[in-house]
Every structure is written in structure tokens, then in C-alpha cells.
Write a structure and sequence with these properties.
The complex is a heterodimer of chains A (about 400) and B (about 240). Chain A has about 400 residues and is an alpha+beta fold. Chain A is built from 13 helices and 10 strands. In chain A, a hairpin with a 2-residue loop joins strand 2 and strand 3. Chain B has about 240 residues and is an alpha/beta fold. Chain B has a single domain, classed as 3-Layer(aba) Sandwich (Rossmann fold). Helices cover about 35% and strands about 25% of the residues of chain B. Chain B contains 8 helices and 10 strands. In chain B, helix 4 packs across helix 5, helix 4 packs parallel to helix 6 and helix 5 crosses helix 6. Chain B is globular. The two termini of chain B are about 25 Å apart. Classes of the chains: A alpha+beta (about 400), B alpha/beta (about 240). Chains A and B meet through helix 1, helix 10, helix 11 and helix 13 of A and helix 3 and helix 4 of B.
Amino acid sequence: MTWPETLRTAWEAISTRRMRSALTVLGILIGIAAVMLTVGLGQGAQQQVASQIGKLGSNLLIVSPGSSTSLTGVRGGRGSATTLTTADAAVLADPAVAPDVKAVAPTSSTSASLTANGTNWTTTVVGTTPDWLEVRARSVASGRMFTDSELTTVQPEVVLGATTAQELFGVRDPVGQAVAIGAQPFTVIGVLDTVGSTVGGDQDDQAIVPATTYATLVSPSTGTSVSTIYLEATTSDTLSAAYQEATNALLTGHGVTAATADFSINSQESIVQTATSTSRTLTVLLGGIAAISLLVGGIGVMNIMLVSVTERIREIGLRKALGATPRIIRRQFLTEATVLGLIGGLLGLALGIAGSRVLPSVLDQPVPISALAAGLALAISLVIGVVAGVYPASRAARLSPIDALRSE
Amino acid sequence: MSADPIRRLGDIPPILQLEDVDKVYRSGSLEVAAVRGVTLTVQEGEFVSVMGPSGSGKSTLMHIIGCLDTPTSGSYHLAGEDVSTMRESELADVRNRRIGFVFQQFNLLSTMSAWRNVELPLVYAGLPRAERRRRAVDALARVGLADRVDHRPGELSGGQQQRVSVARALVTDPQLILADEPTGNLDSTATADVLDLFDELQAQGRTIVLITHEHDVSARAQREVHMRDGMLLEVDRVRAP
């Protein structure tokens, strides 16, 4: 019996029992679609986090203060201490100390209310240096950034994030307009580009002021301490060298050892890893549940094949009497189970792809379905069909034609 | 037992040659000898009926003759080929090539049209589809169902269904037609119909072995053998014209 003939026979058996076949296929379909979508969702979430963190800047190192310990011995969280100062930033900016560090941006930030023309908007005010643009891979969309020389005096100048500008000035050009931060009058000198990242707060909703201005007019209690120092390594290859140099310089400067370090340095990569590990765990969990539903689908195929063998004992006996060898009978039932699995897989693939088109607009996150995932889904459905078919098929093949013909 | 002049002359071998065939079923410690020491020779072109009440072992004998089962001891040659020691897949091939079955229950596949039922043995013989269709339609024409080729079994009368199964038995052009109570499920008109068909087949020179417990059905055969308690009793007689 040729393969086309075997396939035709399998297809006839499946299409004759339409309702039952459809329900069997549904089990595989749901399983395959669920596995594809959960994996896609997980990958999408990871991609999204990674790309948002990527937007923080390139070759970025983030120096955070260590934790503070109160008099009663209660340790605060990381970054709660004020161990980093503008002096540290100055040391790190010295090419003799840290030759692989290209740019340094000490930043401090606080929440403040901005008022312009009677509109007010609460946002994050960041005090930093002009290098901030370079380090955070940002640019000014209109107007200008303040200069290094403006840091030496206290200039009431502010560069607004795109969202902030929009909220305060609407469609009008904010450059040159007056804005009050708290009670202090400022002039808007520029507007930042749009970046669309929300890691560490909405990166489009902030107001950047010179560090000296920040310490004088916005948050006088800050003094010389800074909340974070952003470093940019010269290239991605020198990132770890820059990390070492910065660590050594700060350990020496603070007179501490690695064990008692009062600061920590994180690379962008480590942040990405931390952020994606959560979503990866969730993906594995959901994917596991989806895989179980796929397994149940496979058991469904086996179940229906067993029922089919029992129901068709007479048919099997007749086919054997007419010349079908056990091998042909086995192949016929195996093919039937495989076709069921494959139909389920193909429909599941279609549903998965449809879902990956629809879901992003609902969830506002990409749901990528790779060719590998699609191929794997089909392969799995094929394997499920074969595995589920082996036992029923061998039972059918072992039936004696006499017993089979005799049964009512 | 009857002599076998043709074989002694070294001419063509007999279609069926069973020698001292036993079939013993074991069920735990219990042994049941369903067929005991059966020796039977059937020549090409003969129409033989096997008579016997139920439990006489005639069904077991039919299974052995039909290569659906193998004897416990003794030898069985079908068209000169020793089939008593064949493996299951070899038996399947022999059944396919040499035997055409007609069953009491018709055993037609209800989801397939008449011609698809008839072509089934040819599928396992590995013939191409167009050839199968041609031969199936041809076989259906020979049993008088040329206009029922695309009907499903459910759309045919009992007699017509049995004629479809006779067509299926004929389609491979087998050396032996083996009919197991072919009229058991038919009314008298359909019975006459099917038996006339057997007469025609015999007239064409086909070998037919018919198993029945009905005397008037058996009377249509040239030669009649009786099964009783697993043993075969030959009743030589010439069929009335």
C-alpha cells in the first residue's frame, strides 16, 4: 500500500468521524497555540525590557551609593546613603585615574512642582552636568543644553523632557519661556528628544538643570552629595576595565576595602539580567502550564485512537482478511494519529500567529513568534501524534482477523 | 476418501489439499480439538459445500482454508503452496492473491461506495487507482450492479450488498472463492439470487467452497462434505441437473 493511499485512508477515517476528530484536534490546537503565545509573550517582555534599558545609554556603568546604617543598626536600602559626592565624580573624570572612562555625569534628583502660565506639573528635577546627554545617549530636540561654563555659576536654566514640555506648554514652543520650579523662576533653554523608555521613571518626563543650580536653588539640602554617578566607557570592550578603574578609584578615595565598600557599580547588562530574570521565570511557568495542556491534548489523541480501534475491530478484521498485513494496519492507524496531531499543530500555529498579530495592540508589548518556535511547534505536534498513535496502532495490528470479524 | 486422479498424473496441483489437519485451542488447562484429522482435496473448478451444525468445527475449518488461521498439525497446500507454516504477513499476501471471501455479514465498509468496497483487495495488492477503479466497476458489472457503482451499502438491499461482496471476492481473480454462510442473512429471493450467481461463477470454471448449515443451499453444490465433531465425512454425490 502506497503512502498516498495510506494518507487517503487516514483522511477518510478522520473526516468520517468529523465531530470527534475536530474535538481531538482542538486539544492539540489549544496546546500548541498556548505554548507559542506564552513563549512569544515572555520573549516579547524580555525584548521590551532589554530595549528600554538599552535606551538608558550605551557602555553605561551606574555608580550608586551604598546602604546607610542608622544608629540603631537598621540598614537602609541600596542608594539610601549619601556617600557619593561631586568630588567622586571629579576623580572619576580624571583621565589619569580612569583612562577608560569617557564621560561622567553625577546626578541628583528630586520631585518638584513646575509652573508655567498658571499650569503646573509635578516632575522629576535632575541636577547634572552637560555630559549627561552623552552618557545617557540623549540629545536636545530644540534649543540647547547648558554648558560646562554655566556650571561654575548658578544659572536658572532648565531643559525639559518632551512630555514635561507638552504638559506645561502644549503645542507652543517652550524654548525661552519662563517656568517656576517650586518658587524659583527658571528659563527653558531646550527640550529633550523623545526616547519612550520608562525604566527608572518616564525618561521623557523630567527637567534637567545644572548641578550647581540644583544644589543652590532646587534642593539646597543636597550639598555636594549626588544620588547616582553615570559613567560611560570609551568602548564596549573597555567596559570591564572602566568598571575596575572606577571601583579602585572610589575604594581608594573613600578609604574602604571591597568588603566594606559604601557604593556599588552596576553595568547595564547586569540590570538587563535582573530585569529579565523575573519575566523569564514567569515565561517558564506559563510555558510549563501550556506544555501540560499540550500533553493532555496528546493523551486525547491516544484516547480517541484507542476508541477508534475498538470501534473498528470488524473493519480491521475485514482489511486483514482482504490482504492487509499487520504492518499496513499499524501504519494506517499511526498515520491517522499523526494526521490528527499535525492538523492540530497547523491550526494551532495559525491561531498562534493570529494571536501574535492581535495581542501586541491589546497588551502594548511585542509578541514575537520566531520561525524556530513555529517549526518546533509543528515538530512537537507531529511527535505527539506519532507517540499517541503507537500503542493503539500496535493493538490494531495485533488483532486476529478471525476474532475481529466475529465481533459484533 | 476419494482418489485424486489428476494429481497422480502429475498435472496441475489441486486448489486445496489438506492432509490430516488438526486444530486444537488451548484455554488454560482445557484443550479443545475443533478440527480433527481432516483430509480434503478440492480440484480446480469444483463447487464444494461444507455442511454441519454449529459447533461442528466447520467455521474453524473455513478459517484454516481461508488462511485466517493456521493448523496445529497436518499440512495444507493452497494451489500447490504450503501455507500451514507461513507467517502472518505471508498469509495476508496469500489471502489477497488467491482467496475471495464472501461473508455472512457482508462486511462492507458503510462509509465507502460500492466500487470503493470492491477495490479494497486491489489496494492491498498495490494496484494503481485507475486500474483498481476499472476492475472494480467491471466486477460490479459481472454481478449485475453496473448501475450501483457509487451507491453506499446502506442504499442497497441485502441481496445487492451480498452481490457487492461477491464482486469484491471476484475482483482479484482469485483461485478460490470461500463463502461462509453467504445466504444466512438473506431472504429467500435474495438467497436464490446469490446462489444463481454462484452457479454462474461455477459455470465459468471457478472453484467455490461454500460453508452452510442449510440443506437447500448445500444442494446447489456438486459435492458435499459434512463436518461432525471436528471430523470430515465425505458425501459423494452428483449434483442433480
